[in-house]
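Hi R.,

Here are the chain sequences for the assembly we discussed:
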Amino acid sequence: MEFCLFLGCNTPAVRPDVEKAIRASMDELGVDLVDADNYVCCPAFGSFPSTDEDSWLATSGWNLSIAEGKKRDILVQCGSCYSSLRMGREHIMHSDEKRQRVNELLEPTGRTVCGSSRVRHVSEVLYKEITPARIAEKVKISLEGLHGVVQYPCHTLYPSEVVGFEDSPREPKGMRQLVEALGATVDGYSRELQCCGGAGGFMKSTPEQAIEFAKTKFDAILEETKADFIAVSCITCLMHMENVQNTLNKRVGEERYKIPVFDYNQLLALCLGKEQKQVSAICNVSRDKVHQFIANAKVAA
Amino acid sequence: MNPQTEANKDLWKAIYNTGDLQHCFNCSTCISGCPASFGDPPLLVRNLARKVMYGLEEALFEDDTPWACVSCSRCEEMCPMDVKPFEMILHIRQWQASNDETRVPPSIVEIYKRGYTQAVGTNVETRQALGLDPLPIITNNPEQLAMFREMLMKTPVVAANDYMFGG
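And here is the predicted structure of the full complex:
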């Protein structure tokens, strides 16, 4: 299996340990990755997709053309990048007029886009191609004894017609099965499918309400589960679900919200025996308990 | 103001010229579960659809709520009439930004200048400590970056606001 890796902006710039985790795990699982050289912003929905279709689709086309040149599908972790590239590709593929216009804009740059490369989310590749069963065989360290909850990236669920890969977008199973493959128990809860609320303008325009909105999710996790960690698969979910917990603690005046948040690839890399200081080095909510559990399991193994 | 006399009946053609919007029967499924519907003021997607269809141009032009959308696209999934509400929100933003330069998102200037919204590639030491190689980013490739900018110069938002992109 081989892919063209599209990292976007936040992962390499703010959370490069997630990038390291993806590279290390994929290598171990026999997936070959090459970088998307000279890639640009996906483009984020708040940028060109909010100004005009030419700049939006030309930027999507620029990125898609890189993978097409390498004859590979694109592999993405960030939810927004994934959805933006999928939607951009959908527009380009389903309208001859739009495809022609994008190629007109790309032509002086020596690029073309025809739609030969698909856009794949890392959780889809792990779930549907590599499969939880094979992951369970490969892991060296088990999380048995730990409880986790999962956060599905909205951008991999909706609209299912364009971005989906779950058998049912109303009842997704991928993240649960992937975490279970690492040996952990996954607790369900009432607000499992509620968006983290971290993307777009919600947090910027009405932070008070956005924090209250996130609080309902964390309260449900605390009341309904025994979660030792939250597994996400989107860089925005990762950063937002950490930051909001710290904000909430300041408000309530106690350390009530302190559930460590991991990108799934980080948990996977740790269970494959990769170095914690490389694949899980950066966090804003302490991961010490989970790291210690894994370190102990490593010694026992 | 009397909305009937002030209305621009062709507004929907300027904003979201698909047949999709005609099917909206105002059911509010797009609001149920929408994160930004909890905002203040709330993003009420259904109301935006009404403003577009009724041609309430002035009210829609002043409306900031389309920019609070988190892009989760839940409304796109759940809409029983396949109106594609998220696409509609993007089209309202496009219409506002193309008629009001103060709506042009600063992030596009960042993307034009360095390829990304974040300063990708400046965290050299952190990356080294994690055992990561430098990324082949466009910021470090003047020839490719110049081509990317030239391409964008031909698109409406950059051509119409070229003063923002100088230097």
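The first helix of chain A runs from residue 10 to 14. Chain A is about 50% helix and 10% strand.

Let me know if anything looks off.

Best,
T.
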